[in-house]
């Protein structure tokens, strides 16, 4: 869903790259009790992006490119999950507000 919204310009993706799983595999059991794993489908975005392919600029990453990247979270052992999660949401909302403010400023005619 995020890939479709991003492809259509309907959403800004905030965070880190997604997992990048795009293949559907079927396991076929063979008569000799071995198996054959067959890729039977590939999920693509509307612009035909295969999220399972490595990024051209960073072969270690796959999945969606966030429009607004955030650094990897570093959970603090002293925080509860709820407090840590609220902090992550606050960081994402602040980053998104910056992007939206810049877009709004760019769209406003001078003068």
Descriptive account of the structure:
This protein is an alpha+beta fold and 111 residues long. Helix content is 30%, strand content 17%. It is built from 2 helices and 4 strands, in the order H-E-E-E-E-H. The strands form 2 sheets. A two-stranded parallel ribbon has the order 1-4. A two-stranded antiparallel ribbon has the order 2-3. Strand 2 and strand 3 form a beta hairpin. It starts with a helix and ends with a helix. The model has no long low-confidence stretch (mean pLDDT 86).
What's the overall average pLDDT, rounded? 86
List how many beta strands DSSP finds.
4
Quaternary arrangement of the chains shown?
A: single chain
Q: Using only CA atoms, what is the Rg?
A: 20 Å
The rough form would be described as flat
Structural class: alpha+beta
Instruction: Give the low-confidence spans.
Output: none
Strand numbers in spatial order across the main sheet: 1-4
Helix content: 25-40%
Q: Name the helix and strand elements from N-terminus to C-terminus, one letter apiece.
A: HEEEEH
- Strand portion, in percent? 15-25%
Instruction: Please describe the biggest sheet, giving its number of strands, its sense, and whether it closes into a barrel.
Output: 2 strands, parallel
Distance between the termini: 39 Å
Strand and helix map with partners:
Blueprint: H1 2-7, E1 14-15, E2 23-29, E3 35-42, E4 68-69, H2 81-107
Parallel strand pairs: 1-4
Antiparallel strand pairs: 2-3
């Amino acid at each position: 869903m995020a890939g479709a919204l991003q492809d259509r310009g309907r959403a800004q993706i905030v965070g880190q790259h997604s997992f990048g799983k795009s293949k559907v595999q079927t396991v076929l059991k063979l008569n000799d009790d071995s198996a054959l794993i067959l890729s039977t489908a590939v999920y693509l975005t509307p612009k035909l992006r295969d999220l399972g392919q490595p990024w051209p600029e960073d072969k270690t990453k796959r999945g969606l490119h966030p429009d607004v990247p955030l650094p990897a979270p570093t959970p603090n052992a002293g925080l509860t999950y709820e407090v840590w999660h609220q902090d992550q949401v606050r960081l994402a909302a602040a980053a998104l507000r910056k992007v939206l403010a810049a877009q709004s400023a760019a769209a406003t005619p001078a003068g």
